[in-house]
Amino acid sequence: MTISVLDRTDGTAEAPSLGVLHDEASRVDDELLPCRANNPELWFAESPADVEHAKALCQGCPVQALCLDGALERREPWGVWGGELFLQGVVIPRKRPRGRPRKNEAAA
């Protein structure tokens, strides 16, 4: 199974490539895949709101489970894969905003 981000020298993100998946997934039209139909940089965004939006778009994806399984197997270093956020190869619940955390978490 191959779903990967291509390493680009210009620093831009590229949508996950379906490559060779199971027979059923290889017949899926690219336009049905949120990571192909939307800006690919959304899946590698800095903004917590953008990351949550990417995770929400993944919920209706026909290859969500395959994408997530592949990302777990490869220990993807970062980004949204299969509706989950990865950082250093593990799933994390949410992306924290930049800067110091607030003293009072309820104020966030």
From TrEMBL:
Keywords: 4Fe-4S, Cytoplasm, Disulfide bond, DNA-binding, Iron, Iron-sulfur, Metal-binding, Transcription, Transcription regulation. Pfam families: Whib. Residues 34-91 form the 4Fe-4S Wbl-type domain. One of its GO terms (biological process) is cell redox homeostasis. Binds 1 [4Fe-4S] cluster per subunit. Following nitrosylation of the [4Fe-4S] cluster binds 1 [4Fe-8(NO)] cluster per subunit. The Fe-S cluster can be nitrosylated by nitric oxide (NO). One of its GO terms (cellular component) is cytoplasm. It is found in: Cytoplasm. Its cofactor is [4Fe-4S] cluster. InterPro entries: 4FE4S_WBL, Whib. GO terms for molecular function: 4 iron, 4 sulfur cluster binding; dinitrosyl-iron complex binding; DNA binding; metal ion binding; protein-disulfide reductase [NAD(P)H] activity. [4Fe-4S] cluster binds at residues 35, 58, 61, 67. Belongs to the WhiB family. Acts as a transcriptional regulator. Probably redox-responsive. The apo- but not holo-form probably binds DNA. This is Transcriptional regulator WhiB. The gene is whiB.
